[in-house]
Amino acid sequence: MKMKKYCSILVLISIVNLSFSQEQKKVFYNENLEEISESTFYKQQNFQKNLDLHFENDTLKTSLLITRKNYGQLNDSIFNNLKKSLSSDKELINDLIVIVYYPGKDRCNGTESTSFWNIFDHDYLKKLNKIGSYNHFWIYKDDENLQYYHPKQVKWDNDKNQLVENLFFKLHYPCSSAVIIDRSGKYISYYGEFGKNKIWELSKELMNTKIKK
């Protein structure tokens, strides 16, 4: 689990906001939070593998490469708390928990028109069910522009006490993100834009890992 990495990123951003230099400085970091040159940063950019995130104030601009696909394991206490938060009225006992997370309006989802995102296709959940039994949750942090993401078709729920955000999505990754969790609390999170095929792929990976055990 990469919690320590995310905490380091948040500390770094705090440091950025405390900088007092008069001239804006630019710094670049790779996925391991190692400082690299600007040219190396852009050479290492690969949308299939990482996202580029940028934070700035008047004095400092920090650019980070963030690995898109991440693995982790929730301990029993945290996992049980998450399940109760997601569903207080029934026990979650299916093979998988799938969470699609909408962070709020940004440069990616700022268009004010009905979304054609293929995760709303009718075959999405049908094929997911063939991979494994599931509980699916649609979670949002900020509901601005959420009306364009088929609220009559799916039930969007607010992230209670920012639990999902704090566990999996500490930074604002553009578009939306997702996390798939198996019965044991093992999970794969995926940051940024994705489609239904990515959810199927990650779900199969988790199920295959379970079968191998």
Secondary-structure topology with pairs:
Blueprint: H1 3-17, E1 25-29, E2 35-36, H2 38-44, E3 50-56, E4 60-67, E5 69-73, H3 76-86, E6 96-102, H4 123-131, E7 134-140, E8 156-158, H5 163-168, E9 177-182, E10 186-190, H6 196-212
Parallel strand pairs: 1-4, 6-7, 7-8
Antiparallel strand pairs: 1-2, 3-4, 5-10, 6-9, 9-10
Short key terms for the protein model shown above:
213 residues, alpha/beta, 6-stranded mixed β-sheet, 4-stranded mixed β-sheet, 10 strands, globular
Task: Give a verbal description of the structure.
The chain has 213 residues and is α/β, with parallel strands linked by helices. 31% of the residues lie in helices and 26% in strands. It has 6 helices and 10 strands. Strands 5-10-9-6-7-8 form a 6-stranded mixed beta sheet, with helices on one face. Strands 2-1-4-3 form a 4-stranded mixed beta sheet. Helix 4 links the parallel strand 6 and strand 7. It is globular and about 55 Å long. The two termini are 19 Å apart.
